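Chapter review. Work through the record for Pimeloyl-ACP methyl ester carboxylesterase before attempting the end-of-chapter questions.
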Amino acid sequence: MPIRLNSRLILRFLACVYVLLYLYFMNVQAAHAQAPGKQTRFSVVVQGVAAGKGPDVILIPGLGSGRDDFAAEAALLAPSYRLHLVQLAGFAGEPSGPNATGPILAPVVEQLHQYIVDNHLQHPAIIGHSLGGLLTLMLAQRYPGDAGRLLIVDSLPFYGLVFSPQATVELVAPQAKIMGDTLLGMPDDQYAATQPLMASRLVKSPEGAKKVVADTLASDRKVVVAAMEEDLATDLRPTVAQIKIPITVLYPFNASQGSEAEVTALYKGSFAGMPNVKFTRIDDSMHFIMFDQPAAFHAAVVGFLQ
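Structure tokens for Pimeloyl-ACP methyl ester carboxylesterase:
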């Protein structure tokens, strides 16, 4: 039976980057990571304490987003942690490179694993937002020895569940293709004109919404669409219980999204069967928790890392 598209939920895929607090980076020592095996699917900026003097934390932003999503949080964590801020090729102004054609998610996961190995990272904590959360789960599934713990920020093992509790990859894939073709077929001016509305469904902060728009338009639309379609074609639920390391799922609640019970059931049901998972709800927030509720987000991150 065809699944009826819900525009509010679909727009959650169009996660973009927030750069208002970029200047925080200027006060923290940063350098591009130089791994023996050069990464081509993403770039990494390393910040914070020197190697060996603080625990490693990898931060992966969402669809169409850049590392500056975590700018404010990085400034707070940098005195105590070594931070590896990832940005996928094709997102938020990053050159598309090999992500311009062919599969994206699985090759990114392989290079994330190689980055951890090449840089001798010992069970780093990984924080993944949106698509970054899915990539984090994929990495933990495929390479169970890589990460020490996971913070999954508003992401699901199968994002198709936002369409319907009965969703499957087979049912969602045709809808994802239609949605992708629609986005790709828009003239540039029409695509740009839709972004303020899309941003308003992702973040409450007016300044954050401006940055969402700017970085959506800076992303390679083809890469964003391809990654979105891959996301909807990925269902980790049958094997997600294999992940044994501690996981915290951070999810937002806003009255416009539905009832509290429905939202909570979506997240808890999606991770059912996982042996070591806990849930933290952030109220009065939309998809970009780090922008809408920065203090609550920081408290959750600190609790996760400690």
